[in-house]
Specification:
The complex is a heterotrimer of chains A (about 300), B (about 425) and C (about 300).
Chain A: H1 18-51, H2 68-75, H3 77-108, H4 115-124, H5 130-140, H6 147-154, H7 169-193, H8 198-206, H9 211-222, H10 224-239, H11 243-247, H12 260-269, H13 274-305
Helix pairs in contact in A: 1-13, 2-13, 3-7, 3-10, 4-7, 7-10, 10-13, 12-13
Chain B: H1 2-20, E1 32-38, H2 42-58, E2 62-68, H3 74-84, E3 90-93, H4 98-101, H5 111-114, H6 126-132, E4 133-134, E5 137-138, E6 141-144, E7 149-153, H7 154-160, H8 171-180, E8 189-194, H9 199-211, H10 229-244, E9 248-251, H11 256-262, E10 266-271, E11 284-287, E12 306-310, H12 315-328, H13 331-341, H14 348-351, H15 354-363, H16 367-373, H17 387-402, H18 408-423
Parallel strand pairs in B: 1-2, 1-3, 8-9, 8-10
Antiparallel strand pairs in B: 3-12, 4-5, 6-12, 7-10, 7-11
Helix pairs in contact in B: 2-13, 9-10, 9-17, 17-18
Chain C: H1 6-11, H2 39-61, H3 65-68, H4 83-91, H5 94-125, H6 131-140, H7 146-163, H8 173-177, H9 184-194, H10 199-207, H11 212-223, H12 225-241, H13 244-249, H14 258-262, H15 273-298
Helix pairs in contact in C: 2-15, 4-15, 5-9, 5-12, 9-12, 10-11, 12-15
Classes of the chains: A mainly alpha (about 300), B alpha/beta (about 425), C mainly alpha (about 300).
Chain lengths: ~300, ~425, ~300
């Protein structure tokens, strides 16, 4: 339901309040603006300053180097690799998590007995720390002692190195993080599925539509806002992947899982080159901003035409 | 209506909370309070806290408080605290950070202090002193020392009918034994190495490099020389075991070594004394590092000393902190700490005290070899601030060779080039 | 336009159904092959897959250290070692940590619910000057990783502690609350869900003379209970498990939260897995309770139908 409706809609009589609305609007957002402005925006701006300096976080002298850090970034082959890995990761993770989450949420969106137990289980998986998740996946996918390879061997397939292999590691991380984020996706979709009126389903069922068709044509389109939320939020998070890489492969083997934020953390806290890390963060920030804006624009178009 | 109630609730809770929050503050007169950040827990933690209690009792004009902070994360914490003006007074910091933390102006240069003979500075093992020295500055006082040696599973050797590692072993002997002890059908390997490309990987390679006669950097620390013949020889040994014999298990998690050892899946581990207590389920032995045939046999090993670093938070606190560290690292306390925790003694006098060494070996078998192995530490890693970059380049090279993706000479040459660029300040 | 009240909606002759995708099948055709719903056959394996990490945590929490130090891991301890729980509890002042975590989480939760509802509604329904640009600006705070912003945040919080109230500054739990009192995440989330509330209901109320705030509290919020309780659950989770920020800011034992307490078990060379997992399990329990309590609100209790004017 687009909020910026064309004048033809019946509530045009309320539009006269247009200017007064700004005051109300700003009044309502002001607590958030103050809080987020001070603790969210101000640090972002202060870090921007850091990206124009050469700093190791140790010495108080932080000489201004202008765009030098950004120039170095353009020539950095590891950064280019990190970008590639981050893109591949995001492209797989976001749709993967949404699909799995939707499937599980649909399964959980019914009133069988003990449904709250299943839902609680989905929720509580999000409470497991990334460290524990890392340990488990490292074990499950171990080349010699892991369950996955044991299963593969049982059907005659050879053991795979998974997280120890430069070619497979990133994809295992995709699987691992989809697993870890499913709970979140499920919870969001569950909340959204509650808003789908049962009457529409009944009407369609009486007309003879199958469950699958009904799901596709009624439920899915009404999940618009939830979908947008998930796409945007999951993308923002995927592009900033760090914890799970830190907990398992530390960017390896041979940089195969080095993603942007992991690389920048390494530059800042292991190599003591914080200015460079800040520049990387800002380059990433611009990309995320652009992608998010595009997602919102596409969503708006889609909603208008549906 | 709901909103008003919520607001009131929020304010009430906030008020309750913030008044309940007390902060520590020191009264203007009264004991000087100093804060010590450390990574000790368990037995080490108990012994350490005991030492602090003792110090507080004996020195009523000072109050030492301690804070546990995991060593891996303490750097971020310290950096933020220093920037924010709330640095601790003493902190335990990894020796590898020395060249970088030397640049923090708030760190106290101990050079003038330790020149005082009652510190007995020369009683600390040479490697420790070198690790704490950056140019003219001494950034800290040795807190911990360790070294690498071969830890092996006696039963696996006996079952395979091979003689256990001896002091005369060469790397060829090591390789042969590892090969014989590898049985893919049982998931058993001869040797395991941390293979994530971090400093953990590098410092397993470095003693081999040194033993072969090589070095990491040139004497003036201006360029990398690890791609010498010696370096290639050392890396080739690793390559042969990892790629050809497949007797070397590459642990990319860096954590599974002691676990696999304890489960009887790995016959040998090159590690330090900290892993011994985890090997509760097997009978293990400890032996010095192998030599390279024809190199003169120095059994060189590597040590990773860490330091107590003192921060300047004003004259009174600074002096109190210095006095505390001096007491903490005095021979008597070093002895008590080593006996209580099993950590190797940081002082030569304590390390050569037979009663101490025997008692330690009684508490934790194998300790004796580790203590004596301290005299095999002849070199240290260069204390240059670009070391993290050099380590990274070298680590990636070693892993790519062990994964079979590269040849030793090529990999080392590429790494040397990257290291030189880092040293040149690019 | 007829006066339409919320009470009319509730009284309307539309059956109030629990929302589920399965429509009531014509009675004659449904036959049960199993004594329970066939969906259990799907849900059980699915749930099992999801909770494997938790099962591993439970198993490890009952092992001895020797058993926990094996690889491949031991799946069934010889004897479940329940003492791990009492030992973990005694290893550090966890009671105090629980209290601190609970206070911080409670304040952050209430603050977020209030502030983000207000802002989320404004972004969802009110056209005000600069709305688009402001929304994007707030969202921008989600796009820079914390590793980069943590030092500036530290400096800002320190300023508050030095200049406003010590209780808000470094090494106090107030500092744990301050940067998290509102997040762009919450605003974005609620904006999306508030948009699904039928705008006709709001318009009807406004025509009646209800103010925007009134519409928010009388119409939008009651119809958004699933979204609010979801946001609550997510906020509780994030706040409870926050580790990096408390690590940087807190140095006194009496101000520590649970995740910091858990790091006690993670030594430089060795992790005490059984105790760590026991402590982890114990720290999950409050969140479990919160979620079970919030379950009630996950299901919409009032029929929201698509009414035409």
């Amino acid at each position: 339901m687009p909020e910026d409706a064309p004048a033809r809609r019946p509530f045009v009589v309320l539009r006269g309040l247009g200017r007064g609305e700004s005051v109300t609007g700003w009044a309502l957002v002001s607590p958030a603006v103050v809080l987020i402005g001070v603790f969210g925006l101000l640090p972002v701006l202060m870090s921007l300053q850091l990206s124009f300096q050469k700093s190791d976080l140790l010495t108080p002298e932080t000489p201004w180097v202008g765009l030098e850090n950004y120039r170095k970034l353009a020539d950095d082959p590891v950064f280019v690799e990190a970008i590639k890995h981050t893109i591949i990761y995001t492209a797989l993770f976001v749709p993967g998590t949404m699909l799995v989450g939707l499937f599980v949420a649909a399964a959980l969106n019914r009133s069988v007995r003990f449904i709250s137990v299943y839902r609680t289980a989905a929720y509580i998986t999000m409470a497991v720390s990334t460290i524990s998740q890392g340990i488990i996946f490292l074990w499950l996918t171990d080349r010699d002692y892991g369950l996955v390879n044991a299963a593969l061997n049982a059907v005659g397939a050879p053991s795979q190195p998974f997280l120890a292999s430069p070619s497979q590691a990133l994809y295992v991380i995709v699987a691992m993080t989809i697993w870890g984020w499913t709970g979140f996706s499920v919870i969001v979709y569950l909340a959204a599925l509650q808003g789908v009126p049962a009457e529409l389903h009944e009407a369609a069922a009486i007309d003879g539509a199958s469950a699958a068709t009904r799901f596709r044509t009624i439920t899915v389109p009404l999940l618009g806002p939830a979908n947008l939320f998930l796409v945007v939020w999951l993308t923002i998070n995927a592009l900033q992947l760090f914890d799970e890489v830190y907990a398992t492969t530390r960017g390896g083997p041979l940089r195969a899982t080095t993603v942007i934020v992991y690389y920048l953390w390494d530059r800042a806290f292991v190599q003591f080159d914080a200015g460079y890390a800040a520049a990387m963060a800002y380059a990433l920030f611009v990309v995320i901003l652009v992608i998010t804006a595009v997602q919102f624009r596409l969503a708006r178009k889609h909603v208008h035409t549906s | 209506m709901i909103r008003r109630r919520l607001c009131i609730a929020l304010v009430a809770v906030l008020a309750l909370v913030l008044t309940a929050c007390g902060g520590g503050g020191s009264s203007p007169s009264g004991p000087t309070e100093i804060a010590v950040w450390h990574g000790y827990q368990d037995t080490e933690g108990e012994v350490f806290k005991g030492l602090i209690d003792q110090y507080n009792k004996d020195h009523p004009d000072v109050k030492v408080s301690e804070l546990y902070s995991s060593n891996d994360l303490v750097l971020q914490k310290v950096l933020t605290a220093v920037r924010g003006g709330s640095a601790p007074d003493v902190a335990y910091m990894f020796g590898s950070w020395s060249p970088n933390i030397a640049k923090i102006p708030q760190i106290v240069d101990m050079a003038s202090q330790v020149s005082n003979p009652d510190w007995k500075w020369d009683d600390f093992y040479p490697a420790e002193r070198e690790a704490a020295t950056v140019g003219d500055k001494i950034v800290g006082v040795p807190a911990l020392v360790d070294n690498l040696a071969i830890v092996y599973n006696k039963k696996l050797f006996a079952d395979a009918g091979i003689a256990p590692p001896s002091p005369t072993w060469t790397w060829d002997d090591f390789r042969a034994a590892a090969a014989k002890l590898t049985d893919p059908s049982k998931g058993q390997y001869g040797w395991l190495i941390p293979a994530d490309g971090s400093e953990d990987t590098v410092w397993h390679y470095v003693p081999m490099l040194w033993e072969a006669g090589g070095d990491i950097l040139s004497p003036d620390n201006q360029h990398a020389v690890f791609n010498s013949e010696a370096g290639v020889k050392a890396l080739t040994t690793l390559q042969q075991m990892a790629v050809n014999d497949k007797s070397l298990y590459l642990d990319t998690t860096n954590e599974n070594g002691p676990k696999l050892m304890n489960s009887g899946k790995v016959a040998m581990l090159v590690t330090g004394p900290w892993d011994l207590s985890q090997l509760s389920d097997i009978e293990y032995g400890v032996q010095v590092m192998p030599t390279f045939a024809g190199s003169g046999g120095t059994h060189q090993t590597i040590s990773g000393p860490d330091n107590w670093v003192v921060f300047n938070n004003g004259d009174k606190k600074k002096q109190a902190a210095i006095d505390f560290v001096k007491w903490l690292t005095a021979p008597e306390q070093v002895k008590a700490f080593s006996l209580g925790t099993g950590d190797l003694p940081t002082r030569i006098s304590v390390g050569q005290d037979q009663t101490v060494v025997d008692k330690m070996d009684e508490n934790l078998p194998g300790s004796k070899v580790f203590v004596e192995n301290l005299s095999n530490v002849k070199k240290v890693r260069p204390t240059v601030e670009q070391y993290p970059a050099i380590s990274e380049a070298l680590g990636q090279a070693i892993v790519s060779v062990m994964l079979g993706k590269d040849q030793p000479a090529d990999a080392l040459n590429a790494a040397a080039k990257a290291a030189d660029e880092a040293l040149a300040g690019k | 336009m007829t006066k339409l009240q919320l009470s009319d909606v509730a009284a309307a002759p539309v059956p109030t159904l629990a929302h589920s995708d399965a429509p009531p099948a014509p009675p004659a055709r449904r036959r049960r092959w199993l004594p329970f719903s066939p969906w259990h056959l799907v849900l059980i394996p699915l749930t099992f897959l999801l909770i494997v990490p938790l099962l591993w945590m439970l198993v490890t929490s009952l092992e001895t250290e020797g058993e926990a130090n094996r690889f491949p891991p031991v799946l069934l301890p010889e004897r479940p070692r329940f003492e791990n729980y009492s030992e973990a509890w005694a290893a550090a002042p966890f009671g105090h940590f629980f209290l601190n975590s609970a206070l911080v989480t409670l304040v952050v939760l209430l603050s977020n619910l209030v502030v983000c509802s207000l802002a989320g509604y404004a972004f969802a329904r009110i056209r005000f000057l600069g709305r688009g640009a402001l929304f994007v600006t707030l969202m921008a705070t989600l796009m820079v990783p914390f590793q980069v912003t943590m030092i500036p945040v530290f400096l800002i919080v320190k300023w508050f502690g030095d200049n406003v109230w010590a209780g808000l500054g470094i090494d106090h739990i107030g500092a744990l609350m301050l940067p998290n009192l509102a997040t762009a995440f919450g605003i974005f989330f609620l904006r999306q869900f508030f948009q699904t509330v039928p705008v006709e209901l709001e318009e009807a109320a406004r025509v009646d003379g209800t103010s925007r705030l009134g519409v928010l509290f009388k119409i939008v919020l009651p119809l958004s209970l699933p979204a609010l309780s979801t946001l609550a659950a997510l906020t509780v989770l994030t706040s409870w498990n926050d580790f990096l920020w408390p690590l940087i800011v807190i140095t006194s034992h009496d101000q520590m939260t649970i995740p910091l307490g858990l790091s006690y078990f993670q030594g430089a060379h060795r992790v005490k897995w059984p105790l760590l997992m026991a402590a982890n399990v114990m720290s999950l329990l409050p969140m479990l309770l919160v979620f079970v309590g919030a379950q009630r609100y996950f299901v919409q209790s009032v029929a929201s139908t698509g009414l035409k004017g």
